[in-house]
Write a structure and sequence with these properties.
Layout: H1 2-28, H2 34-63, H3 67-91
């Protein structure tokens, strides 16, 4: 029971983090050049793709009664978003 709750919480955390990052990227693109707009769109679509794949895989693993692998897969978008934010801050994008 507890591992399943942890897997669900990991997935919810990743979804909220991804949504927050997409909002921050959109806010940062308000007065951007066309090249930066293209980069921002690619970043947002990649976040959406990683989140959708991870969420689907996490749900599938939970249905197969494998909550710990579901937790690991569910938290992958969070790790990707944190890495993206570190890179964006480092390069002052």
């Amino acid at each position: 029971m507890i591992p399943t709750i942890v897997a669900i919480l990991a997935s919810i955390t990743s979804v909220l983090t991804s949504l927050g990052t997409i909002v921050m990227i959109m806010a940062g693109l308000a007065n951007s050049k066309p090249a930066q707009l293209t980069q921002g769109k690619w970043m947002m679509w990649s976040i959406v793709a990683v989140q959708a794949i991870a969420l689907a895989a996490s749900i599938w693993l939970m249905m197969k009664h494998k909550p710990w692998p579901a937790t690991i897969v569910g938290i992958i978008p969070f790790v990707c978003v944190v890495a993206l934010l570190v890179v964006l801050v480092k390069i002052e994008w």
